[in-house]
Amino acid sequence: MRVLVIEDERRIAADVTAALSAAGFIVETSGDGEDGWFRADSEDFDIVVLDLGLPVMDGLTVLRKWRAAGRRMPVLLLTARDGWREKVEGIDSGADDYLTKPFHMEELVARVRALTRRAGGHASSILAVGPVEVDTRKKDVSVDGRAVALTPLEYRLLTYLILQNGRVVSQSELGAHIYDQDKEHDSNAIEVLIARLRKKLGIPVIETRRGHGYCVTPTEGAAS
Question: Where in this chain does the record put each Response regulatory domain (predicted)?
């Protein structure tokens, strides 16, 4: 899952990046409102962590411009302790949640996980497709109760597909949402990753739609 953190305080940005990366997210950062607005307006992120007190363009303006343009990704606001008016304005402007500074990184990670689940229509921290279960809090995966050891990349791929609720996802979209943007990957990397993940799961839960991409389905007999 791809996260954009827009925060001008470098220490906070670095701490948030480290915490979300450790939780399995692909994190990118921006230090001012105008740059952050442009990036999330022109690229697809699964969630944005947005500070309100930004230089160049303030966070509320950024949020309003996204919503006016039809950008619907979840947004978690970071606000000052005494900024209750901004909290109200932020929620009214389309924010999905807010967190008051200073905050515990564990709470921020939990809120980001919850927002990405809800965006995919999942209320619980357990994502399930047929006999496959993914515990997004512990990052554990099981099939019929049997634990399955996945690499971080395999885990991100499976989680992203499940959160799409059966929507067919192209190779290019998968690559953008599961790979670190600073790392190179060749054109058949997704195919290799899918094959490896299918072998570990041992059931045909990942379906190939030729010429279109991949989706997860709880029905048996998915195409290989």
Answer: 2-116
* pTM attached to this predicted model: 0.84
pLDDT band, very low/low/confident/very high, at 221 (cuts 50, 70, 90): very low
Domains, the chain, ordered by start = 2-119 (3.40.50.2300), 126-216 (1.10.10.10)
CA distances for 206 relative to 146, 164, 201, 219, angstroms: 18, 12, 9, 10
Percent of the chain with pLDDT over 90: 75
Cβ-Cβ contacts under 8 Å for 206 (sequence gap 6 or more): 161, 194, 197, 198, 214, 215, 216, 222
Find the range with the poorest average confidence among 8-22, 23-37, 103-117, 181-195. 181-195
Please tell me the distance from the alpha carbon of residue 6 to that of residue 28, in angstroms, as a whole number: 9
Distance between start and end Cα atoms, the chain: 24
Whose CA is closest to 27, among 37, 16, 11, 43?
16
Helix (H, G, I), strand (E, B) or coil at 150: coil
